[in-house]
Design brief:
The complex is a heterodimer. By secondary structure, chain A is an all-alpha fold. Chain A has one domain. Chain A is built from eleven helices and no strands. The longest helix of chain A is centred in the N-terminal third of the chain and has 32 residues. Chain A starts with a helix and ends with a helix. Chain B is elongated, with a radius of gyration of 22 Å. In chain B, a hairpin with a 2-residue loop joins strand 11 and strand 12. Helix content of chain B is about 30%, strand content about 30%. In chain B, the strands form three sheets. A six-stranded mixed sheet of chain B has the order 5-6-7-3-8-9, with helices on both faces. Chain B is of the alpha/beta class. The chains are: A mainly alpha, B alpha/beta. Chains A and B meet through helix 1 and helix 4 of A and helix 2 and helix 3 of B.
Chain lengths: ~250, ~290
């Protein structure tokens, strides 16, 4: 049941090019445009190349992107199509349903990394220790959990047609403000003041630290921030889910 | 007989609207039940309560002796709901396999697809199906788990006459396997063709629960139709009729005493043309039952 459901959830997303192509290819397009040109430059006062630094940025960007979009869009579409009504009448346990989506999102996230890592290695000449590759991968996968909740919350709070717009409006600007596209130091001062409080910035720090780039606080501080955001996002998601329940299914 | 599904004095309020006002009904295993009623009568609400999609405001809904949200109760039930969607980007065969995996003892995939007459579309994406084909897909999804009970909420809505006829045959086929079928409809001939029991719901109350033949005989034996261009409303007062419908100048009366009605009309000097007296069908019975 779980295997079938996961397979179906995967196919559902895979066959929507607007999702699958953008989440797999967009990160390497960004990497090609922004990262490759100056990939071999060493960041001031370190041994870390810009190629490695930007690989960490794009890993964080693409994985969080997969989590928010896959959950946000699938929940919103399902509500729009009223698939949720039919699913609720089947014997499929809700937990299996939820689990299948999490597995699907993690598989997609892993796929984006499987495309991005070799691209950075070949085109960007990024050379990391085996341990660093591994640390970067597991940190971005683990650190993306709060964004699952954020995707759920947006899926329940926005309509099926507006979900994509809402996500883009929230996600892209905060990705910029968090320094995922250009290092934070290049951003306007006012945004620099805000960015340490953005969840994507904290997520980004975990990635930058993994490739050896300097970060403003310790890794454990970043994890704590992310955990805090995770709790807030889950609370919002659960609230939104309950609101939906009491409207449609009570 | 074993009870498959039960409503016990169930009421349901949506805000201030009272959709069900104390409905009790027992659906036995092997029953083929049609729930009839005008729009907004409470048919869909009754089904939603039996399926655990909604909770009764008071009273109780029971499915195989359990709460309707119980997974093992649900694994004995197949459903077709009004206006519910399925993922567009899956193929027919994939989504049938998916739904089969929810049930402990499903039908073979080919069998379920054949029962719905979708063999030629098995490899098409859901989004490529026509409206009628999509309706048949919902039927395939409802039967693929080999359920004991099938709940069908307005299954033929939006189909043409031919499509409805063949669809009703498919449902009958399933019922012949000894399965329980509960369907809501406002196509009365469907209930007449298919059901062994008809439950008429109106304004949140069960107003009749009997075999189709009994419902027909209970209300009105005969239907009297005629055209009366100069009819006055008081011409029809005091006649032994159970229902009157007047459209333009054509009049339809339901009565158990057609002779007495006609004698009275002639005595009153009403000019009538195109007189027709026939046995009432379920539609007439239904009109008589729900006319207030």
């Amino acid at each position: 049941m779980l295997v079938r459901q996961t397979r179906a959830e995967f196919l559902k997303l895979w066959r929507v090019p607007a999702f699958s192509a953008t989440s797999l290819l967009l990160p390497i397009v960004f990497y090609a445009f922004i990262g490759i040109g100056q990939a071999s430059q060493v960041l001031q006062g370190t041994h870390v190349t810009f190629g490695a630094y930007f690989l960490a940025s794009m890993s964080v960007y693409s994985v969080a992107n997969v989590m928010i979009f896959s959950f946000g869009i699938s929940v919103a579409t399902e509500r729009g199509m009223k698939t949720d009504l039919l699913m609720r009448a089947t014997p499929l346990p809700p937990l299996v349903y939820l689990l299948s989506r999490c597995i699907t999102a993690i598989v997609f996230a892993a796929l984006t990394l499987a495309v991005l890592f070799p691209f950075a290695y070949i085109a960007g000449g990024v050379r990391l220790e085996a341990e660093q590759w591994f640390t970067l991968a597991y940190r971005v996968l683990l650190g993306s959990i709060p964004f699952i909740a954020l995707g759920f919350a947006i899926g329940y709070l926005s309509g099926p047609n507006s979900a994509v717009a809402v996500i883009n409006l929230i996600y892209l600007p905060t990705a910029f403000a968090s320094g995922l596209f250009f290092p934070k130091q290049l951003l306007p001062q006012i945004i620099q003041n805000v960015s340490p409080y953005l969840p994507l910035y904290r997520f980004g720090q975990l990635g930058w630290d993994a490739v050896g780039a300097p970060t403003s606080e310790s890794v454990s501080t970043d994890w704590l921030y992310l955990a805090g955001y995770g709790i807030v996002f889950f609370a919002i998601a659960i609230w939104a889910y309950r609101r939906e329940e009491s409207r449609k299914f009570s | 007989m074993t009870t498959a599904a039960q409503l016990i004095d169930a009421t349901k309020k949506y805000g201030s609207v009272e959709a069900l006002k104390g409905v009790s009904l027992d659906i036995e295993l092997g029953d083929v039940v049609a729930m009839l009623g005008p729009n907004g009568a409470g048919k869909t609400t009754s089904i939603s309560l039996l399926l655990g999609l909604r909770k009764p405001t008071s009273g109780k809904a029971v499915l195989f002796g359990m709460d309707p949200t119980n997974v093992s109760a649900r694994s004995r039930v197949g459903v077709m709901l009004q206006e519910s969607g399925v993922p567009q980007m899956l193929k027919v065969s994939e989504i049938v396999d998916l739904f089969r995996s929810y049930y402990p003892d499903p039908l073979p995939r080919e069998r379920a697809i054949a029962m719905a007459g979708l063999e030629e579309k098995a490899n098409s994406l859901v989004k490529e199906l026509s409206g009628g084909q999509r309706q048949r897909l919902y039927f395939a999804l409802a039967v693929c788990g080999n359920p004991d009970v099938l709940f069908l909420d307005e299954p033929t809505v939006g189909m043409d006459v031919e499509g409805r006829r063949s669809f009703i045959e498919r449902i009958a086929e399933f019922a012949h396997l000894g399965k329980t079928v509960v369907l809501t409809t406002h196509y009365l001939e469907e209930a007449d063709q298919l059901a062994r029991r008809v439950i008429v719901i109106d304004r949140g109350v069960v107003i009749a629960d009997a075999p189709p033949a009994e419902i027909k005989s209970r209300v009105a034996g005969k239907r009297v139709r005629f055209v009366a261009p100069a009819l006055d409303e008081k011409d029809l007062q005091g006649l032994p009729v159970s229902a009157v419908t007047i459209k333009d100048h054509s009049v339809q009366l339901l009565t158990n005493q057609p002779e007495a009605v006609l004698r009275e009309l002639f005595q009153r000097g009403v000019q009538i043309a195109e007189l027709e007296v026939s046995g009432a069908d379920l539609e007439d019975a239904f009109i008589a039952l729900t006319t207030h």
